[in-house]
Amino acid sequence: MQEKPVDFDDLDESGLWEHYRLKVDAGQSPMRIDKYLSNRIDNASRSKIQAAADAGNILVNKSQVKSNYKVKPNDDIQIVMDYPRREIEIIPEDISLDIVYEDDQVIVINKQPGLVVHPGHGNYTGTLVNALAYYYKDLPLFNSEDPRPGLVHRIDKETSGLMVIAKTELAKNKLSLQFYNKTTQRKYQAIIWGNPKEKAGTISGNIGRSHSNRQVFTVFPEGDNGKHAVTHYKLIEELGYVNLVECQLETGRTHQIRVHMKFLGHPIFNDSNYGGDQILRGTTFTKYKQFVQNCFKVLPRQALHAKLLGFIHPTTGEELIFDSELPNDMQMVIERWRNYIANRG
Q1: Which one of 33, 191, 286, 345 is most buried, by most CB atoms within 10 A?
Q2: Global pTM?
Q3: What is the DSSP string of 180-244?
Q4: Which CATH number does the domain housing residue 68 bear?
Q5: β-sheet bridge partners, residue 311
Q6: 247 and 337, same structural domain?
Q7: What's the domain count of the chain?
């Protein structure tokens, strides 16, 4: 698979990368671009600039350049880099990781629900990054000063499933291109409320933070607020008042599947942020309500799992595809709904 230049106009909202655009002054004398950018971007060392260039993350006049390129007057420079390190000390913590694959460049893990990916407000310890800092304490990329080492994408705290983490700066930059260019494969499975009118379809709608509640996201009219987002879905199994669906991401916005399924009228089962923790379909019988409440207790989170992940290895060029089983909590709830359907007659 041939890598194409990063689409700087359609970056996702993972919060892991930063986009800079600079116009070179008309009077600028020739200067290496790594030196030029390190002088103009806060907390950006020449080595970090060089790593971005090596991965093809620097464009000059829409063309990729190397770190020895000499800037010229009126050059239009675009660059994507990971965010400057914040004043958060990462404390290595011995947290169990379900490792699916590992080599000298990448590690693929199956993240358990309830694990926050990286430190932030209210979650400064006990995160995936704390676990990685312990596991990779001898690797230079994983040190106490960087709150997001190796991260090129993330999944929500209560979502389970597959993630790839870079172990080198080169891998981090190479993988980031694939996520931005939408050349990775990402398939999720979710239990949703109700029966979509179409058993397979595409949900397209700009996603952005809600104006009324900044903790959640919503779909806005095209061309208005938010950023372009596309989710493809198909029905996997009918379970009565809920259904098991597969969702394939074309873009990677925050909470994308959760927001799009609510927009479709079928929130994810027990998704407290988007209304799925209410009984949205079914009967009014007390016995049924108790059945659903018991399912909520078995699966005390949104029923969403990152099941399949595919990408091109950053150094070998080999296509790697990983698939994971649904976690026990989702499997148990699915089995309960199967039994409910079989016995309700």
Answers
A1: 191
A2: 0.76
A3: HTT-SEEEEEEEEES--SSSEEEEE-EEEE-SS-TTSEEEE-TTSSSB--EEEEEEEEEETTEEE
A4: 3.10.290.10
A5: 320
A6: yes
A7: 3
